[in-house]
Amino acid sequence: MDLQLKGRRALVTGSSSGIGEGIARMLAEEGVKVVVHGRNRERAENVAAQIGAVGVATGDLSSDEAAAAVQAEACVALGGNIEILVNNAGGSSTGNTTKAPIEISTQDYISNYHANALASVRLCQLVVSDMTAARFGRIINVSSAVAVQPNNLGADYSSAKAALNNFTVSLAGALRGVGITVNTLSPGIIMVDGLLRFGRQKYGNPNLTIDEVTKRLADDKVFALPPAGRLGTPQDLAIIACTLASPLSGFITGANYRVDGGQVRGLN
Ligand SMILES: NC(=O)c1ccc[n+]([C@@H]2O[C@H](COP(=O)([O-])OP(=O)(O)OC[C@H]3O[C@@H](n4cnc5c(N)ncnc54)[C@H](OP(=O)(O)O)[C@@H]3O)[C@@H](O)[C@H]2O)c1
Q: d(Cα 21, Cα 58) in Å, to the nearest integer?
């Protein structure tokens, strides 16, 4: 199926590794002009060279000024406005995995709100006027399964992602009839380099394969494998991201797409 993505212009934030890299790679394979983003320029340039991206834009998205600089750099590399924005940069900025909600400082809640909600809000605010003028835009906000099914720990991260889901629905509703769709993509547990490194370190063997690390983590009850019986891959997310980015997906907006192997026991 031709998704009609060839020649479109995309910025994928946080594409210097992990899920974002997978999404950027598949968009590039579909003929999209892609800009790779991260905070570390060298890492972003390596990925850009590997996947055939048109350029990189670097900067921390935790401030308005830096986000504006990222958007400007991306537009120069793309030779035009951003038509497809994948707000993927994020992850727990505090790494709070053992603290209960009342033990987490308000500073940590604020930090995660910047990294996981406002980073996306900022870029949405920056791209919407050009998308409206062009009467075409695709915005995909990468959230998390824990936005709708939080754990008891790490509430600074999960509550920020919940805010992102909420913002997405508001923005989609406010952009009525202008050709812009805004959706959320919610990964479950996805095997990225960070998780592989964590597993290899935990079991003291740098040569463990992805399958071996996954099996040990599951046997260890670090996490339960979802009904799909495996962890997700960046490619699992990329397939849905490409579909949502397509001009053919104009009737899908304000939706939350779970790509979690059935982890969330919910009706949406
Ligand atoms: N992996 C999972 O299991 C999982 C599950 C649910 C949701 N998610 C979400 O999926 C997204 C990608 O996660 P991942 O696992 O692929 O993580 P990852 O491999 O650590 O990649 C994160 C990317 O985001 C960038 N980044 C992080 N904070 C940033 C900031 N403040 N400003 C600019 N760039 C920033 C990083 O850039 P640098 O090169 O500068 O580090 C990197 O490119 C995140 O939003 C995360 O919350 C992941």
A: 14
From atom 25 of ligand 1, which residue's Cα is the shortest distance away? 14
- What are the structure tokens assigned to 104, written together? 């987490």
Residue 110 one-letter amino acid: I
Report how far residue 260's alpha carbon sits from residue 248's, in angstroms, rounded to the nearest whole number: 24
Provide the token pair at 6. Answer: 């060839």
Give the position, in ligand 1's atom list, of the atom nearest the Cα of 62: 31
Residue of 26, 35, 39 to mutate, ligand 1, most atoms within 8 A of C-beta: 39
Please give the distance of CA 126 from its chain centroid, rounded to a whole number: 18
Contacts of 228 (CB under 8 A, 6+ apart): 261, 262
Instruction: Name residues contacting ligand 1 (CB within 6 A).
Output: 14, 16-20, 38-40, 43, 60-62, 88-91, 115, 119, 142, 144, 187, 189-190, 192-194
Are the beta carbons of 196 and 210 closer than 8 angstroms? Answer: yes
- Integer Cα distance of 84 and 226 in angstroms: 30
pLDDT along the chain (268 residues), means of 10: 98 98 98 98 98 98 96 98 98 92 98 98 98 98 97 96 98 98 98 94 94 91 91 97 98 98 91
Domains of the chain by start residue, with CATH: 9-190+232-259 (3.40.50.720), 193-231 (no CATH)
- HSE-CB at 39 with a 13 A cutoff on CA atoms is 9
